[in-house]
Design a protein that fits this description.
Layout lengths: L2 H11 L7 H6 L4 H8 L10 E4 L9 H17 L2 H6 L1 E5 L5 H14 L4 E3 L6 H11 L3 E5 L8 E8 L7 H12 L23 E3 L2 H12 L15 E4 L6 H11 L4 E3 L25 H10 L3 E5 L6 E6 L5 E3 L2 H19 L6 E6 L5 H8 L3 E5 L3 H4 L3 H6 L3 E7 L3 E3 L9 H17 L4 H12 L1 E5 L2 E3 L2 H17 L4 E2 L2 E8 L13 E5 L4 E6 L5 E10 L2 H20 L3
Helix pairs in contact: 1-3, 4-6, 4-8, 9-10, 12-13, 12-16, 12-17
Length: 566
Amino acid sequence: MGYQENYQEWKECLGEEDALWQDLLDLEDREIEKEESFYQDLAFGTAGLRGKVGVGTNRMNVYTVGRATQGIADFITSCGEEAMEKGVVIAHDPRHMSKEFSRLAADIFSANGIKVYTFPDLRPTPELAYMIRHLGAVSGINITASHNPKEYNGYKAYWEDGCQVSSQVADAMTKCIQAVDIWTDIITLTAEPDEDVKKGEIVVLGEEYDRLYLDCIESLAIHGGDEIDLDIPIVYTPLNGCGNIPFRQMLKDRGFTNWQIVQEQADPDPDFTTVGYPNPEDPKAFALSEEYGRKTGAELLMATDPDADRFAIEIRTDEGDYVPLNGNQTGYLLVNYILEGHKTAGTLPAKGAMAKSIVTSDLSTRIAKAYGVTMFETLTGFKNICGIIPRLHEEGYIYLFGYEESVGYAACEDIRDKDGISAGMLVAEAAAYYKKQGKTLWNVLQEIYETYGSYCELEPNLVLEGIAGSQRIARMMASLRKQPLTKVCDIEVEKVIDYTDGYEDIPPQNALRYHLADGSWFAVRPSGTEPKIKFYFYSVAENKEQADEKGAMIRDAVLERVSSVE
């Protein structure tokens, strides 16, 4: 059906008493918004659902969330009684409608005879991922839009391996979801399901489970006690999300004594009033942290996003300025510290392994190689990065770390997703370890560049919302395939890798990677969760200034070419 037909169906079925009724009526004469809201069903994929909260088939609301949940419940039921008894773990973040959607999901799963584990309040995404494997659950759901603007919410789906669902599982779930009629097929406890439907048990997880998650994180410690300076001044902000309580507890457990929380961003706030766009990748998210840092003399500023899976930092230079690090740079520091730390502690395995995505800088590969550790490449997303852990075990490797440039880090193999709390612990430990040696993280980053090469990392993106935006992104990708660049800034293109049909042992993805003759490279792909096309530029030179200059030239040339596609 077209958007007008979808709109009319909702108008006929919704009912005047429904909380969304007035929102539906408000769209009557607003054709653009009506079309955006109803032109398609909100797509379910390996990233689950994500969209603006509101009325319509292309929005996050009780009907689209209910449909997705019923479809997943049908899929789990098709897997048999054992899967139903294993159950589903459900968590949520502080966004608008997150608690309501999580309660609805618990209601539907239980009404379908599936056991449910929930938390008494909001919890980090990585804690959910940990609990799936710890409890032996078959699946997990987190209601969160991660770092997206306040208008958004989302629905992350996990499977029994503790990773977000694979393409195979997502496809099977999607078939079940598409078979659900939102008006007649959703079974809830309040809808008086058929008598032969057994209600599942709903278990609320107590504080002891939070402790298990923190114990898992804190077991990653490499150095402690007199080896680190626990008085290092630190500022942390949870950006009004889930990270506040677990992050503070972790710092206390590890013995850090000189840290501050950005109070204005400590408590949950679905409007993210003091930050606006709650993405720690964006330096603007650190504005208040910098104020705190200048007052307290902090050497390290740390932030997690609203569901506490992403993590970013700013570090103080020798001149006293705060500098934001991109995800690659924080990754360099973590890879270097984990390997150096294990080597100095005598715990570096003979066959160690790390993993990164195909769009992440290869400087970390150089670092790993210097320590005799193998760096594996995967598609973007931690279902892929953490998804290779079983394979590594089969091949005799010891997993040490995985990350990607979008400020996501997975340091613990028992947490099969990116985790801002464990990343924060290791960065704080690293800063305290180097401080004991008379160095800062800024000094260490410069040493890494001097040792392995001066890199420039640039990650611009073009935000193109709505139907027209998605169509233009498709045309941009098609143009780069039909008329590939042969030169960039007079530098020859040596190789173009198109991941559409997969490449070597990398599965298919809508992504391109251009390798230039001077060792620079760049990649481009549409985001799977946001209305944007993403670019990743990497250049290397004799010094940082030259690398930055070259990187900017390559970036500008490529963006000019891509932006010319209408």
